[in-house]
User: What shape does this take?
Amino acid sequence: MLARPDVMVAVVLLGCVSYACRAGGYFLMRYVSLTPPVEGWLQAIPIAIVGAILGPIAANGGPPEWAGLAAAIGLTWLTGWDFVGIIGGIAAVALMRWLAV
Amino acid sequence: MTVAAVAASRSFASSFCAGAALIWVMTPGIVLVGIVFGVMASTVGLTLAEAAAFSGSVYAGGAQMASLQGWDTPVPLLFVCLTTAAVNSRYVLMGATLRSFLAHRPAPLVYGTLFFLVDATWILAMRDRDKGYDWAGYLLGGGLIMWFVWVAASIAGHAFGQLLGDPHAYGFDFMLAAFFATAGVTFWRHSRRVAPLVVALAVSIVVQKLIPGPWYILIGALAGSFMGIVGHARPA
Assistant: This one.
């Protein structure tokens, strides 16, 4: 069995949902003029997305996740290199889980 | 950090190459997540071709894995569509921030490029926003590389992933968090704005406890970003 029609329909449908998210925000901004309040909103989006993704992870996590966040943030802060922070964060989580903290 | 990207001083081709070259720092993480998705896909009974098509079409690790959590036969279409929309709702906000980066480019190019928009390319574009790239080229170059790596890793995970054992033990599920934690440092250095961050953290934590599903990302990010209006709403 290579691919079932019903699964492929679902896959294509989900692709359309994903694309609607990717293109939708850009498209809608066509109808919004860049007044100072709108600029303030746009400027705050990046750090707000970071907060909204990390908040529940920190709140629901245990020592491994906290160590991972600390390592990712600390290493990026010190080295200025995203890659070191990402790998360091994952390594810290794996280490803490291995130690079963 | 200003919203408007600096006017392009580099050609499409050189921006495309820069985007493709800079994205490699992000690919090890995508390989790991792709392998985990491939393993999960084979666990719920998707064939290799279906898993590859899934990754090629949806191209969003978090949404794909969240959809697989409720996968069944027949596929619960409403559930998987809502889950995908909720996890990917952050892209609506990311797309909004890219308006000033792309609005002067031809629409077919822009809307083609947006298919390949991912966290990593958006994070790098925000970081490099004052470097004068042609952002269609930059985002397309990085996005295409990530797409091929993502689909290839999903196939590899489906084919060989079981040999790895438990991905949880390796911390692969922490990938998205590690991505955004490092991005947070970069964004913070651009603009030290406490209110959007704190409000997004607090609202997402509360919403996540009250509303099932991943809607906390959109609601928390919207609440936090609205704090940016407060700081700018002074009379001209």
